[in-house]
Amino acid sequence: MTDDEIESVLSDSHEGSEQELPVIQLCGLVEELSYVNSALRTETEMFEKYYAKLEPRDQRPSRLSEIKMSAADYAQAIIEEAEIRWNEVARAVHEFEKDILKAISKKKGSILATQKVMKYIEDTNRRRDNMKEKLRLKNVSLKVQRKKLLSQLRQKEEVGEALHDVDFQQLKIENAQFLETIEARNQELTQLKLSSGNTLQVLNAYKSKLHKAMEIYINLDKEILLRKELLDKIEKETLQVEEDRAKAEAVNKRLRKQLAEFRAPQVMTYVREKILNGDLEKSIKMWERKVEIAEMSLKGYRKAWNRMKITNEQLQADYLAGN
User: Fold this and answer.
1) How many structural domains comprise the chain?
2) How far lies 139's CA from each of 26, 31, 170, 220, in Å?
3) How confident is the model at residue 198 (pLDDT cuts 50, 70, 90)?
4) DSSP assignment string, 45-80
5) Strand locations in the chain (E)
6) By C-alpha distance, which of 57, 30, 42 is closest to 175?
7) Are 48 and 63 in contact (CB under 8 A)?
8) Residue 47 shares a structural domain with residue 188
9) Which of 20, 58, 79, 222 is most buried by a 10 A CB count?
10) How many C-beta neighbours within 10 Å does residue 192 have?
């Protein structure tokens, strides 16, 4: 893969950054950068072999591998970097729970929590895109330097000039610095990809929890509305029963008062009053029965209302326990 092809691939991946997922972009950049590193290492080895033929064996400088960090130091650096990334993820999770999950538990916090989640996701993607663009620009700058060095080397080979020791040492130093810089950028890209994957997993988990909490919140709103309608109906029926009972008691008192004030009339009057009294007693019994029925209905409504209150309290307790 030539430098022009690499630059075209990087530019294409940068232009399509708005259409692909950030993790896919990072994977593509890591693969492209690995190709560049492989080509650079191959050219470096060829350059070292060429220089080994030019100078005596006893004057050869130490190889670049001698200045690389040992495997233990490299592993320790990776562990420290992983611990730093883990602390950052833990801090992000703590802030997420403090700012959003607590807002969900409030009655009017769902819209605010959703906005905070979306803002958190947008900020994370923006920071990741900025870091990716920064690394891409650095890689482009390093490739330009590499092309410049290769161009100088080709010019010297074409004119037949022999490389002096100072020039070669300078080139080797710059080449070593270039390799170290690319290796560091590779590590940064790898860590960024891992951090991005972990962050996306955490965000997806909390988005799922938020979706479930929203469903529970909507169901509770519907249940509360139904309970309020039933409560209004029970209150209206209770008022009607109380009115009927008051009317029945008034009629009962009036009839009992009339019965207490009754004086024995004449025979025909007595017969008529007796018949009327029988009708009144039947009416009294009928109203007393209505009052008993109304009281039984009132007791049933009160029991239903108490059961409804207990069920509502249990639903609220289950919702709070689920959060």
Assistant:
1) 2
2) 13, 13, 21, 55
3) confident
4) HHHHHHHHHHS-GGGPPPPGGGGSPPHHHHHHHHHH
5) none
6) 42
7) yes
8) yes
9) 20
10) 21
Query: Distance between CA atoms of 142 and 177, rounded to whole angstroms?
Result: 10
**Is 221 a member of any domain?**
no
Does 160 score more than 60 pLDDT?
no
Question: Over the chain, what is the mean pLDDT?
Answer: 72
Residue 184 and residue 84 share a domain = yes
- Same domain? For 195 and 295 the reply is no
C-alpha distance from residue 275 to each of 59, 251, 268, 269, 270 (Å) = 144, 18, 11, 10, 8
pTM above 0.70, yes or no: no
- Least confident piece of the model among 129-133, 245-249, 262-266: 262-266
Separation between Cα atoms, residue 55 and residue 48, nearest integer Å: 11
Exposed / middle / buried, residue 89 (Cβ in 10 Å: 0-12, 13-18, 19+):
middle
Residue in 153, 198, 212, 169 with CA at minimum distance from that of residue 55: 169
